[in-house]
Amino acid sequence: MPAVLREGGTDVNPFPLDGPHAPDTVIGAARHVDDLIRHLNHATTRGHALTDPADLCSVLAALSEAAMKLPQLLDQLAMVAGSYVDRAGLYDSHGVNPRVTATDVKTSLSVVAGRAYKLIDPLRAAHEAAARLGVQASKGTP
Question: 124 and 113 in one domain?
Fold first, then answer.
């Protein structure tokens, strides 16, 4: 399920899948991911925000889903970087051959995409294990 914002009682996805897709929306979405991870980091610093194993399970389910999508994104960004290799007017601000730099970006992104695949199975396993956890109500607690 995509991230939604409540606006006047209506769910609004700030980044609809069908676009529009433009540099500002793509950059905005990437910055939004950064902000969301920072939020999760702060919210889970001491674990107080997740008081029930079901809450942890829900977070792990969402992170597992995100992890499954990350390699595709990184591969696609590698293809974008590769498309710059023969682009007219491309330059490197450090005076290095820009084709080499674009190729280095492509290669680095391809490597990290391969490593991102390694996140999927452990996150899925953590989610599946967390789904088995529960807390029994204390005697006398309704």
Answer: yes
Q: What is the C-alpha to C-alpha distance for residues 126 and 57, in angstroms, rounded to an integer?
A: 8
Do residues 39 and 76 both lie within one domain?
Answer: no
Query: Smallest Cα–Cα separation from 60: which of 88, 34, 40?
Result: 40
Report the pLDDT value the prediction gives residue 12, as an integer from 0 to 100: 73
Q: List the single range of 14-23, 29-38, 121-130 with lowest mean pLDDT.
A: 14-23
What pTM, to 2 d.p., does this model score? 0.85
Nearest to 33 by CA among 21, 41, 22, 44: 41
* Residue 132 token pair: 């088995």
75 is a domain residue = yes
What is d(CA 79, CA 99) in angstroms, rounded to the nearest whole number?
14
| Boundaries of domain holding 25 | 21-50
Q: What is the mean pLDDT of residues 12-16?
A: 80
Please compute Rg for the chain using Cα positions.
21
Q: Clarify whether residues 63 and 131 are in a common domain.
A: yes
CA distance 74 to 53: 31
